[in-house]
Write a structure and sequence with these properties.
139 residues; 2 helices; 90% helix
Length: 139
């Protein structure tokens, strides 16, 4: 027997799978942003101002450090955006999972009710057959 909830369960399952894919993508984006930020900090830690040399070399080193700071700020924004998206995707996944579980539960309850109805129907038929057999033997 096919439940009236079966199409809804199928639809909710697709929605849940899509939400799961989006969450995985958000987790991957967050991990990538974290790696880029970490590498940017590492690159900045290896930069140093020259202690000897011309003013041009000092200006060039200062400009490189400034550029690296800007890169770090950009990666921090990307990381923050990725965190926000991950939080949003996690929440959507939870909602989709709850919806799926609700309809799955309703489907199981309907199937159980149908099985109980069939059992009751079979029991009544067996009782009727038993009564008919008893009457036949009594005659």
């Amino acid at each position: 027997m096919k439940s009236k909830y079966a199409p809804l369960v199928k639809l909710k399952k697709k929605s849940l799978d899509g939400a799961e894919r989006n969450l995985i993508a958000a987790n991957n984006a967050l991990s990538s942003a974290s790696d880029k930020l970490s590498h940017a900090y590492t690159a900045l830690s290896h930069m140093a101002l020259p202690t000897k040399g011309s003013v041009g070399e000092f200006s060039q080193a200062t400009a490189m450090i400034h550029a690296q700071h800007q890169t770090i700020e950009e990666y921090q924004r990307v990381f923050h955006d990725a965190q926000q998206k991950q939080i949003l995707m996690r929440e959507r996944f939870k909602v989709a999972q709850i919806d799926y579980e609700k309809f799955k539960y309703l489907e199981v309850q309907e199937m159980n009710a149908y099985a109980k109805m069939l059992k009751d129907k079979e029991a009544k038929m067996l009782d009727e057959i038993g009564t008919m057999m008893y009457k036949r033997e009594a005659l």
